[in-house]
Amino acid sequence: MDDDPLAKEVVVVVNPGSTSTKVALYSRRGSVWEQTLRHDPAELRRYEPVTAQLDLRYDLIRPLILEAIARDDLTVVGVVGRGGIVRPVAGGTYLVNEAFLEDARSCRYGDHASNLGTLLADRLRRELGLDACYTVDPVSVDNMWDKARISGHPSIERVCRGHPLNVRSTARRIAGELGRTLEECRFVVDHLGGGISITVVEGGRIRDVNDALLGMGPFSPNRAGALPLRGVMRLCYAHPEEEVTRIFSSGSGLTAYLGTADLREVLQRVDAGDRRAVLVYEAFVYQIAKETGAALAALRGRADGIIVTGGIALSPRFVDDLRGYVGTMAPFFVVPGENEMQALAEGTFRVLDGLEEARDYPDEVSHRRSSFTFPAT
Q1: Cα–Cα distance, 140 to 82 (Å, whole number)
Q2: Does 235 lie in the same domain as 89?
Q3: CB atoms within 10 A of CB 111
Q4: Long-range contacts from 100-105, C-beta under 8 angstroms, 24+ separation
Q5: Predicted confidence band of residue 7 (pLDDT cuts 50, 70, 90)
Q6: Per-residue pLDDT tens for 277-301?
Q7: In angstroms, what CA-CA distances link 321 with 253, 254, 313?
Q8: Which of 158, 296, 130 is nearest to 215 (CA)?
Q9: What CATH number is attached to the domain comprising 148?
């Protein structure tokens, strides 16, 4: 560390996953220290809901973070945790208040590991003597057009569930490279990882996205994506709901067809002449390209760019194959990786440095969405 006092100012970042907890210290210049803790899945299954894991995870990360702060004589100016499934909200950096903590803790809107993020952040800010902690672009970011919610049957509503943290952060980055603000741009952002979300971003707002867990869109390394309804009905009649959920959310996609979720292995089999791998890989690229084209159509063909991000974007071969489908439709940008830790830190520093105002929870989107009803027929 140099002698610049600002370089000593850091934000503590906490990002819990299903079987891991990522922790980091970020200065305004970037990462100062990072560590990923792996958890025993069998041990975690003892806790229900997922937020019952709070004490377990906190006791593991606390000494590591405090040691890293003390070792480099750092000054903590903020704490931020990944935001989970709470009420629908607009994008932005949120001050974590009691209402947010209660909705995350109760898992009333969804039982997901990300719900632990703000709970861990709040406990850390108390330990460090700070008045506030934050979250940035929670999983529940939702500025979808109402027309995008209509599914085809009035008892089923399309939901806004994707990867808003990385999507908005990556879109902001590309907007900056174009010399514009996020609010001035229109993008299609393909977040490609274990889950795949193809997102329409207009004026910084997420206007449409396939349900990246159980819904529309392309199949992913282990998720089903959109499926023919008759086949879905047969499977639902033949198996309990829990089993069907497992099949569609973690036992589908590349895993079901080829026995692996690792795209690198799939490509090795393609190169070895495995005809089934060739066909499934071609379908994988094809479905992502089709969904990207549909998202471009939602913007009436007027987009400032197609942005490809997430772990799969680390594959030059995949990126080139996707570019072959959609690369002439709009400027094509590649930002590999999920970049969530950096996005959380940057959002917090924007508030601390007066570049963005922290939002209150719940906000106007929460109130508007809670009163959304289908028009009378």
Answers
A1: 11
A2: no
A3: 14
A4: 100/135, 100/361, 104/51, 105/51
A5: confident
A6: 999 999 999 999 999 999 999 999 9
A7: 18, 17, 11
A8: 158
A9: 3.30.420.40
For residue 377, the enclosing domain spans 1-163+340-377
Query: Which tokens go with 311?
Result: 């772990």
Query: For the chain, what's the residue count?
Result: 377
Domain match, 215 and 79 both: no
Residue in this structure with the two tokens 């506030």, named with its chain if needed: 132
**Same domain as 244, residue 115:** no
| 127-178 tens-digit pLDDT | 999 999 999 999 999 999 999 999 999 999 999 989 999 999 999 999 999 9
Question: Does the residue 118 lie in any domain?
Answer: yes
**Looking at the 3D structure of the chain, how many domains does it have?**
2
List, for residues 352-377, the tens digit of each pLDDT value.
999 999 999 999 888 776 544 433 33
Q: Are 141 and 268 within one domain? A: no
CA atoms of 222 and 194, how far apart (whole Å):
6
Q: Round to whole Å and give the CA distance between 326 and 293.
A: 7
Give me the residue label for tokens 């809670």: 370
- Do 322 and 60 form a contact (C-beta atoms < 8 A)? no
